[in-house]
Amino acid sequence: MTNYLQERKSNTGFVLKDFVLANFIIPDTLEITIDSPSTDINQQIEKLWLALEKPADKLTNTSLLPLANPYVVP
């Protein structure tokens, strides 16, 4: 927060996006796609369920609250 306030105050051309990119690790986003959509809703849900399942989290030095078991992200 101190760095942000100092940078913002001292830099007249301050760009928030540049500050964030220089000071934070931005996680990659993953786009979920299903190659062969099915007309059967049950088959479609089964395919999506597998795509939405995430493995258990690893402990890291982040604000993430790690989950010990696999979980589904809706």
UniProtKB/TrEMBL annotation:
Name recorded for this polypeptide: Uncharacterized protein
InterPro entries: 6hp_glycosidase-like_sf (IPR012341)
Organism encoding this protein: Psychrosphaera algicola
Origin: domain of life: Bacteria
Gene3D superfamilies: 1.50.10.10
